[in-house]
Amino acid sequence: MIIAVDGPTASGKGTIAKALAAHFALPHLDTGLLYRAVGRQVALNHGNPDDPTDGLAACDFPDSLLADPDLRSESTGALASRVSVHPGVRQALYERQRAFALQPGGAVLDGRDIGTVIAPEAEVKLFVTASVTARAERRFHEMQALGRRVTLAEILADIEARDARDRSRAEAPLIAAADAVVLDTSDLDRDAAIAAAIRIVQAHERTDR
Length: 209
Ligand code: DC
Description:
Helix content: 40-55%
Order of helices and strands: EHEHHHHEHEHHEH
Radius of gyration: 16 Å
Bound molecules: 2'-deoxycytidine-5'-monophosphate
CATH architecture: 3-Layer(aba) Sandwich
Mean pLDDT: 94
Distance between the termini: 13 Å
Low-confidence stretches: none
CATH superfamily: P-loop containing nucleotide triphosphate hydrolases
Strand order of the largest sheet: 2-3-1-4-5
Largest sheet: 5 strands, parallel
Number of strands: 5
Oligomer: single chain
Number of helices: 9
CATH topology: Rossmann fold
């Protein structure tokens, strides 16, 4: 079974995808991490994230970069969003994601275009969303816990800018697949959001029998 989990930044999609993978014993790929690695590699190369050639050159980042804690920072997230608009970058990362999705036994992938581009045949598609305020507050608490100095207003502005860029890009914009189930986590805590996602997958399993 392939489970596609898409949604905007800080919607809870990563937490949900990880929990679904554990519950259904499936391997999990956080595809945002690949774009973050490209963004970080552009910075390490002293390149320009808005330049498609610099973006493409950064796609052969070493695998060790995926373990770099800096990939989780807000600034790397913004770089990732900027490099992800380039069709060449998306193409370069496509095969790796597609191979992960098609592995025997299935997989859970989370990102922006899993249900629409990477695995349109996914048996279950979740589009996880939440209000901008709820997402900014969540991200703010995460950053505080990591000891990062950033204000709520900065995070709000960053999330709005990233949403606008991710939704308006020409190539694979952030959009719910027509057959996705939308899960709004604005008023759900972590456990309630995970439980709701598990129920959605189980409902699919029942109708599939
Ligand atoms: O999910 P995230 O915040 O780690 O993603 C960082 C950026 O990477 C996001 O703003 C857009 C891009 N991205 C993408 O374009 N497609 C994906 N499947 C995953 C992430």
